[in-house]
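Researcher: I'm preparing a figure for a lab meeting and need a structural model of a single chain. I don't have an experimental structure, so a prediction will have to do for now. The sequence is pasted below. Please return the structure as tokens so I can convert it later.
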Amino acid sequence: MTALAKLFRSAAFRVSIASLVVFAVFAGFIVLYIGNRASELYLSQAEQANNEEIAALADDYRAGGIRLLAMSIQERALTPGASLYVLTDALGTTLIGNVADFPLSVLGLTDGISHAVAYRLIGEGAETREAMVRVFVLAGGLRLVVGRDIGERSQIWAVVRDALWLVAGLVIGLGLLSWWFIWRTVLRRVDAMAATSQHIMSGDLTRRLDVTGSGDEFDRLAASLNAMLARIEQLLVGLKEVSDNIAHDLKTPLTRLRNRVEASLRSGRGEPEYRRALEATIEDSDQLIRTFDALLRIARVESASVGDEMAPVDAAEVLRDVEELYEPVAEEAGLGLDVVVEGPLPLFGNRELISQALANLVDNAIKYAALSAGGAASDDAARVTLRGERRDGRIRLSVIDRGPGISAADRARAVQRFVRLESSRTQPGSGLGLSLVAAVARLHAGTLELGDAHPGLAATLDLPAAWAEVSDGGRRLAAE
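Model: Understood. Here is the structure written out token by token.
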């Protein structure tokens, strides 16, 4: 009973019932319309046959008078499947014909107008049938009644009734089939989705809606919801990892900061010692602030809350600006900084974030390339290259150094938050630089690729171009 109640309350069931009612009404209308048109056509043919018979008999009467008319009626009446023929005098007495009984009121009908009447044929007992008759008035008050049996019209309506019963049976059968289909497919899938949703709300974010592979609306809905759930799970896992990493990675500098202050207070060496402790504390605090700023920025980028700040950007100009900003830093580290750009590189994005991502890559490149270069700025190995190129409708912004690089096994870990590889343990930083770059790439529907520069690292932002060439030599937004 509960299952039936759920079925009756479901929107799918109501839609199915409404569809069946509409189908039944439409089918019934079509059957009745066809039956009515067939009956009208049949009567029209009977009336036309009567008119032709009367015309022929009238010709006989004009040609040979009453004698020839009577002979013609007699001959026609003996023909199998003959029409109805009755010739009466002015008093209504039958002179000749093949009809045993018919209403005498027919004789008073208007000449030329067809009417349906009941009749009995001679030699057919008491069986009464129906015919379409027409009265033709002759000279001397004689009346000629000619009719065509229309009993087959009842057979037409019998066929119509059978068709209506068939339609009713089909509607009932289709209704039962629809209910079974709704029960087996629609309601079960809805119940499965509801059960999965309950598990997810209970905290099991690994559960997903079933996708049968049929490609129907439920599959498309399930696929969209699964993608949303995967994204939610990814964000929550990322939040958990961030919380764990903050608790783990920030505990050490906070503990060190506290211990330093406590040690200075216990030493009692006076103002110089206190000043050094305060300066070190300020430096550690600044590093903590930078770490929290980076985390907030990554969270803001991953939540796409900067989407309204998107605008056309020429990445070639951004590369040159970053090169100009970091050239003094590179020279101080004993490195050369080059920019190789192939024409304008139009993007649709956030200029500040793209600049920040490239700045992070350049900062890392300078930091680690300086360790391997040994201060030889004239050496090719002591150079960092910024390259921008357009390839297959994509913009590729690369930062290439000749440092130690990142092994293929560590590249996936390198973009995770707070992950610091063994080669970077001795360098200052929080392990969030590449995480921010990867987040910026995802925000712009692109990717961050870490490759081998033989030797060194080639970090590439692969982003979609904002402009597409058109046949007239102009350009337009690729999204248009």
